[in-house]
Structures are given as C-alpha cells and as structure tokens.
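Q: Fold this one first, please.
A: Sequence and structure below.
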Amino acid sequence: MLALFDLDNTLVNRGIAFTEAIAALCNDHGYNSVIQEWLHTELADRANPADFQRLMARFDLPDDPARLWHDYVNRIAAAVRCVPEVLEGLAQLRIGGWTIGIATNGASDIQRAKLTATGLADHVDGIAVSGDIETRKPDRRLFELAARRCGTDLTDGGWMIGDNPGSDIGGGHAAGLRTIWLRGRPWPDGLAAAQHVVDDVTDAITILLNETE
C-alpha cells in the first residue's frame, strides 16, 4: 500500500525552522529588523531564489542573491528537525509492507535539503517536489510523480497525509487517495472530509499501521 506524506508542518515543523533560519541569516549578514520583518512576511508561505533578488532590489543591498539563497537553504537545513518517533514510525510502516513517498510543494533544493538533514530521505521510497515539475499540489500530476518515483501508480490506491485542507486533502481525494488531515488550518466550506483527522503525524502513522493488522 502506498502512503504519501506532505513535508512542511506534517513530518517537520516548518514554522520553527523558518523563524530560526531568518534570524540566523539576518544576524550573519548584519540585516536590521526591517529587513528581517520583510523576509518573515515575504517568505512566510513559500521561498524561492527570486525572493532574494527582490530583497536586493527592495533594500538596495550589495549581496549576491544566489549566494544568499544558498545561505538560506543551509540555515533552514541546520534548523529543521524531525522527531525520532516520526522516523521510527516510517521505518515501522516500511517493515509492515508500506511504500512511503513524499509529495511536497516548494523549491526542490530547499525541500531536499530538509529531507537530507532530518534523515527523512533515508526512510522513504520516493520524493516529488513541486519545483521538480513546476506544478503544485493539489494538481494530480504531483501525486502521480510521487507514486511513480515510489515504483507504483495511483491506480493501486493509497493514502495522502498532510496539514493543508486544499492541497493535501482535496488534492489527495481528487487523485483517488484516502486522506488523513493534521488539523490546524481552517477547513474550507464545501471540501469533502478526510477519512481521519489527527493532531500529530504519529497518530496518522498509527492509523496506517492498524490498516495492515
């Protein structure tokens, strides 16, 4: 059985890593609180190299935007954490015969840096990042790519686990997957309910493990 997981705020806490990375980046480069607040606002939902080109133009800074993006990626990788219980749970799923994939929106280099830094890359069978194909969840093509990179396809069914109602749960449903939602974001009107609602991804892993018993 296939289980696809979102990355940010599902397997890892993006918010904490993001805040720490911005603070460290600004400290390293001597940026003031105005620039730090701009970065917090502009990169809150997503980040990519073009954001740092805009930063240079906005504040007339002399830094190389490509180098700054590289520094940011490294800072995120240094700050992000995946708790041992999640890694252990994914290992148990694979022992139980599950195929595990990551389907995440974001820039490829930063998402893969997180997966490598946390050890998650060693616990999954395939990874699909929206930056790989410039297509974001809830587009079915990202789910298809994740399944294909896991050596399977969506016709075999499976699960999608994530925190975003629209992109993870709505997208998962449209791709023919059953879903588990990590509650927290507002639930939009008219969106079909997930099969399960949990407070933590370890609870979702427990549900999947029970599916194999």
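Q: Good. Now the second chain.
A: Here it is, same layout.
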Amino acid sequence: MRIAAIADVHGNALALEAVVAHIRASAPDLIVNLGDLVSGPFDPARSADMQIALDCPTIAGNHERQLLAGDTGFSDAFARPHLTSAHLDWIASLPGTLELAGGEVFACHGSPAGGDLEYLLEDVSSGRPTLDTADAIGTRLAGIGKASLVLCAHTHIPRIATSRGVLVVNPGSVGMPGYRDTTPVAHVMEAGSPHARYAIIDRLARGWAVGLHAVPYDFEAAARQAEQAGRDAVAYSVRTGRMPPA
C-alpha cells in the first residue's frame, strides 16, 4: 500500500496544483487530506474545487470547524465569502478523524486524544517547536485503536517520530510554510523553505517507509495573492519559508 498524505493547504491552489502533479507521478493507492483546507489569503474557492475533485478521504481541521462556526479570524473570514453553499456543505460533511486500511492507519488533524488544536509531536514552550518526549507523544495517541501509523497535521512542520510502537507522520503544509500563534504560548512555526510539502508512506514487509517531499511552485504568484489580501507576513513566509521578525 502506498499512501500520499497532504495537509494544511490553507487555500493555496497554486501550491496544491504542484503537489497533486508530483503525487500523481508516484501512483499512490490512496491520498489522504488532513484538514485546514481553504482558510487562507490565496484562492479558497479554486482550492476547494480541487480538493473536492480529489475525491479522497478528507478530515476537518480546526479551520473547518472555525469557518462553519463563523469565526472572525482573518483566514476564515477571508475564505468564507469566496465559498459556495456546495463548498460549505462539503466541509460540514467531513469527519474530525478517520480510520483507514482496516484500522491500521489513523488520521487526525491535531492529536487523537487532544483534538484539532493540540500539537501531537511538538513542544512549543520555548517559543519554537522541538520534538516532544516519547512519553508525552504517547499520551496523545490515546484512541487510535490498533493503528500502527498515525497521520497528523496542524503544525505545518514535516516530521516523523515513533512512540509506543506507533509511527507518526506529519507531512507538513502544502500551502503555508510558516505562522505565529499565541496558544498554548507565543510561538513561531517555520518550515525553513517555501516549498509545498507532502508525504508518501509505503507499507513494506518490515513496516512503514516514509518520504517527506518538498515541491517547488510559483511562490511569487502565491505571495502576491497574500499581499493583495493584506497579509504581508503570510506573503513573506510563502517567499522564504520563514516568518518576518516580530
């Protein structure tokens, strides 16, 4: 079995287009979309159309929940008026988690135990993400059943880790390589390059093999979309993979 995992598109249709083309060359058996689909200062409607057309297992992230609830944060407020009722109906139909491959694979946006806002692999108490301890990660894996592979997202940081015999893969963000947040403490997330990210996971006789991919696309065109929406910090991150100095 070959699985392609994408996450955190955030409405960046240009990045998604490049990633989907790269994925097709790998001929996966399954594409899994891990949420935060359309909320971002890019092209929400086109990105929604593209993700619907993938017709793949897709889960809702925190931004889908916020979007439907009428959240006034910029990314959700920007996306909402660009979306049709069909887009919103599709978003409302999405589950928060999925079990795939007969329960061998568990997909979530944040963490299985803590919901769509909890980081599964990272400790951000220093203000920047570091890999958390195996025990801390293990407690957040409660509820995965018999899964040996957990696919997660939310941090925008590509990462692979193991805990309690479970392999955890975060493919990174397709469309937004950096952001700042204040919860649970003030912190910054930076992928370090502007590439669109995704993962390929292969089931081998001895376990799961993982490839983390970084795909170039027209960064400048996406950055200009963010600037036109008034999001200069996002534009900076799309050009550089880093956030501007605070």
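Q: Anything worth noting on the second one?
A: The first strand starts at residue 2 and ends at 6.
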